[in-house]
Specification:
This protein is mainly beta and 185 residues long. It contains 1 helix and 8 strands, in the order βββββββαβ.
């Protein structure tokens, strides 16, 4: 079924207090560019991707940053509430880059102390895009959040909405890359 004519759904950050931005770059994804199949969901979700988390690097964040969180959100998912693909918390402030695949599989590429929350598939790792066939292009908002606390004090059983609520008052700045993906009908 084609998508109804409607306004573009907002990103989750449009509802929060404005914060400064900083630079987020990637060897794998770019603003407005289609996501390569390597970073798309695999056969578990009916696609032929490799389900690798993309490389991300960041700089220019506030000097008082104590930790980072990394998220990926699809505001265009036909759920009424979007879809969280990735929620990674408690990255130490000295970590300013994640290699390709660091948050995939056994997540052995992550630094000690980092916590993956269950995304909206309940996986505690990155899950790549898997929009419904023919639903049109979806935006995938990859965000790095600079936080004023070293640890959020959440455990891996917390849902993404609770993490967002907890981060709201301690976010110093945020950098974003918004890539796209669609499955033809």
């Amino acid at each position: 079924m084609p998508r109804p004519n409607r306004a573009t759904p907002p990103t989750p950050y449009e509802y929060l207090a404005e914060v400064p931005s900083f630079e987020v770059t990637s060897d794998d994804i770019a603003d407005g560019v289609a996501i390569d199949r390597r970073f798309v969901a695999d056969a578990d979700f009916g696609l032929d991707g490799d389900n690798l988390s993309p490389h991300l690097a960041w700089s220019g964040f506030p000097p008082e940053t104590q930790s980072f969180a990394v998220t990926c959100f699809d505001p265009d998912a036909p759920t009424g509430s979007g879809f969280w693909h990735w929620v990674l918390l408690d990255l130490p402030s000295e970590v300013t880059e994640l290699d390709t695949g660091a948050a995939s599989g056994d997540c052995s590429g992550l630094p000690d102390g980092a916590i993956h929350l269950g995304n909206d598939t309940t996986n505690t790792c990155y899950t790549g895009p898997f929009p419904p066939p023919g639903h049109g292009p979806h935006r995938y908002v990859f965000a790095v959040h600079a936080l004023s606390v070293a640890r959020l004090g959440l455990d891996a059983g917390v849902r993404p909405a609770v993490a967002g609520f907890t981060m709201a008052d301690v976010t110093l700045a945020r950098g974003v890359i918004t890539a796209a993906f669609e499955v033809p009908g």
